[in-house]
Amino acid sequence: QVPLVESGGGLVQAGDSLRLSCQASGRTFGGYAMGWFRQAPGKEREFVAAISWSGDSTTFADSVKARFTISRDNAKNTVYLQMNSLKPEDTAVYYCAAGSGRYYSGYRSMRYWGQGTQVTVSS
Q1: Does residue 89 contact residue 46 with C-beta atoms inside 8 Å?
Q2: Each residue of 49-99: pLDDT tens digit?
Q3: In Å, how far from its chain's centre is CA 101?
Q4: Which of 16, 34, 91, 107: disulfide with 79, CB 3.0–4.6 Å?
């Protein structure tokens, strides 16, 4: 397995920004798509954003488009999620995941998962 460790979560106010990081250790994930997902209390885990192995392709959930960006630094084995203009409805545990291919192809294609980091946005 590829251990993935998320960091950067916290408690912020609506309109604030946060940057989440996800670092892999033990093995490089540079050849795989990476993604961010989130799960709010009482809800199913949902897709947030994904990035291809080289960073040339990104995709976002409609709810976060124009507010969130995803990037990666393969030399550092790290993927980032920059979250701007946060809203209370963004409150959730955010999970990083590594895919099984070079491009994101759906939830079921994600092979490795981190433990999650809590993001709480107060109104």
Answers
A1: no
A2: 999 999 999 999 999 999 999 999 999 999 999 999 999 999 999 999 999
A3: 17
A4: 34
